[in-house]
Amino acid sequence: MIEKEQSKQSIDLSHLDRLDQSILLALAEDGRMSITDLAARIGLSKSPTQARLRRLEKTGVIMGYRALLDPISLGLDHVAFVEVRLSDTREAALRAFNAAVRQVPQIEQAHMIAGNFDYLLKIRTRDMATYRAFLGDIISTLPHVASTSTFVAMEAVKEEMLPSIE
User: Fold this and answer.
1) Which DSSP state fits 17?
2) Distance between CA atoms of residues 128 and 147, nearest Å
3) What's the mean pLDDT in 34-45?
4) DSSP summary character for residue 58
5) How confident is the model at residue 6 (pLDDT cuts 50, 70, 90)?
6) 27, 73, 123, 140: which has the fewest Cβ within 10 Å?
7) 109 near 121, Cβ under 8 Å?
8) Helix spans in 87-152 (H)
9) Which helix (H) or strand (E) holds 121?
């Protein structure tokens, strides 16, 4: 997994011209868009559009396609942000924590932070009782967790998946 992450970081984005950016924005809005519709939207014929799309996929700029699920309609409307402090921040401990976090589906996002704590996690559960159990049973048992602080979101003001490409 580390090799894959490093290769993503080394992708040269200077090759993204206006048409590549248009493809990315169009697919970020509608990943099921047909090649015909995509070509019409960006102003190219199908063959060059398809070639550009394949190149963007092959180089890793487009990592994949998936359905965006509405967490509220799935009953997952409790969002908590959790500050995590680790007892050990040496590389092996960080790798162990990162690997464990990747295996937990309720953790929507995990970010290593430069500050007074080590990680910020975004966790989505059904309700406060489910979150409380999750905190005790899962989060506190992750490798090297020393302490946590929880902040419960009252309302999502902005949650967008569309990239800003400039």
Assistant:
1) -
2) 19
3) 96
4) H
5) very low
6) 73
7) yes
8) 91-102, 128-137
9) strand 119-125
